[in-house]
Amino acid sequence: MAQRDTIAAIATAPGAGGVGIVRLSGPRARAIGEAITARALTPRHAHHARFRDERGDTLDDGIALYFAAPASYTGEDVVELQAHGSPAVLHELLARCCTLGARHARPGEFSERAFLEGRLDLAQAEAVADLIAAGDARAARAARRALDGEFSRRVEALAESLMAIRIHVEAAIDFADEPLDTLGGAALRARCEALASALDDLLAAAERGRRLRDGLHAVIIGPPNAGKSSLLNALAGSERAIVTDIAGTTRDLLHEVVRIDGVELGLVDTAGLREGGDAIEREGMRRAHGELQRADLAIVVLDARDPQDGRSAVADAIVGVPRRLWLHNKADLLDVVAALPDDTAGDRHLSISVRTGAGLDALHACLRQLASAEGGDAVDGAFTARARHVDALRRAGDELAQARAQLDHEALDLAAEALRVAHDALGEITGRVRADDLLGRIFSSFCIGK
Ligand SMILES: Nc1nc2c(ncn2[C@@H]2O[C@H](COP(=O)(O)OP(=O)(O)OP(=O)(O)O)[C@@H](O)[C@H]2O)c(=O)[nH]1
Ligand SMILES: [K+]
Ligand SMILES: [Mg+2]
């Protein structure tokens, strides 16, 4: 591999803080650290030192740490200069590193090097970014598990079973005139079946992990004037959306992330659904439909005085949304509160009044529970995963199904090819197999200094 250059970045968050860290990685990291501190740096030793500019004047004093390759985060020589967390000092320190031969690191470049040096696999490197960005403690713990390799190990185990199946099929191809059954066909089929079911399990876990990372995505829909925007404001705790008594007030989508008892929930307010409306309102309804395609939950707001009308308005829109929460709003306007339908796994019903606040505690509890169940709160060993992982597992599953069908037809060549593609799909998750632009896309979404 070509000799890499030395990269540097401020690794702590922007702004003033107690401590700020400039991090270096690469072949010149140690020499640059020693030039700035005017000291010999011993690996894994905290050196209290003055950080100096080119004239020898003190920029700051702090702690210098040196991690010798390969025992460092990136696998290269790494130096960390811990100064006072003043943006001015840190920028001067970084500029000094660059004068001494380092260059500014791109976002995620430290983690990219850790991946290229084999310190982390790709799913683990992604977990680093997820851990940093985790919105709540559950997501952080789950990212930590992915970083520890929990997810990668399960992927590797599947890849190994798949490899054994491929070897069996490739060997059978050499005896193509014999029926598969005399070549251990029954055992092969049993292995394929076990692998398919293990893949399904991991796919389900990865989907939970994806939701844990991205949070529950809920879309508020209903007929005009049912109180959708009022509900968004009540959950957000501020007047985010315009509320009026004019039907068709909301046109655009309004995204808001709210926290309910520490659990994050992504909410989208949408235009009321009804026949007709002007061009702007119709565009709003089109967007509402689009948003529902990726919703985990539809929060349907109905006017409790005429719930049937609201149900018909949303009937088409909610097809395919996994869960629905039906809110019979404006309970304050009813003389008698009508009985609600029974809850089922996919549908829950609550009577509320956003105006008086009645039922909002129950709503909070319900949303908290839905968000937790979606995120796999109760599932031991939950790990974060990304849409990319879910997609790869799905493709591997599809190819394996193909291969099994081909085996049934004794079409060994075709089966072998499908198995190879399935194997590659699994390899993409950990980065054993990778498309050229994949690394760029993944690491560019990281923050600088990581
Ligand atoms: N009485 C009563 N009025 C409510 C309640 N919730 C909302 N409203 C009123 O209903 C009207 C419509 O509220 P919005 O929140 O704008 O309704 P919307 O569903 O967002 O309406 P569009 O954006 O036009 O589709 C406003 O005048 C609100 O003050 C409630 O619980 N009780
Ligand atoms: K309105
Ligand atoms: Mg509205």
Keywords:
450 residues; alpha/beta; Four Helix Bundle (Hemerythrin (Met), subunit A); Rossmann fold; 3 domains; six-stranded mixed sheet; 14 helices; 45% helix; flat; binds guanosine-5'-triphosphate; binds potassium ion; binds magnesium ion
Short structural description:
With 450 residues, the protein is an alpha/beta fold.
What level of helicity do the residues show?
40-55%
Share in β-strands = 15-25%
Q: Care to count the β-strands? A: 12
Rg is 28 Å
Sheet with the most strands, sense and barrel status: 6 strands, mixed
Number of domains: 3
Biggest β-sheet: strands ordered side by side in the sheet:
3-4-5-2-1-6
**Count of helices?**
14
Shape: flat
Oligomeric status:
single chain
Bound molecules: guanosine-5'-triphosphate, potassium ion, magnesium ion
Q: Estimate the mean pLDDT confidence.
A: 92
Q: Uncertain spans, ≥5 residues at pLDDT below 50?
A: none
Q: Which H/E pattern describes the elements?
A: EEHEEEHEHHHHHEHEEHEHEEHHHH
Structural class: alpha/beta
Distance between the termini: 22 Å
Main location: cytoplasm
Keywords: Cytoplasm, GTP-binding, Hydrolase, Magnesium, Metal-binding, Nucleotide-binding, Potassium, tRNA processing
Pfam families: MMR_HSR1, MnmE_helical, TrmE_N
EC number: 3.6.-.-
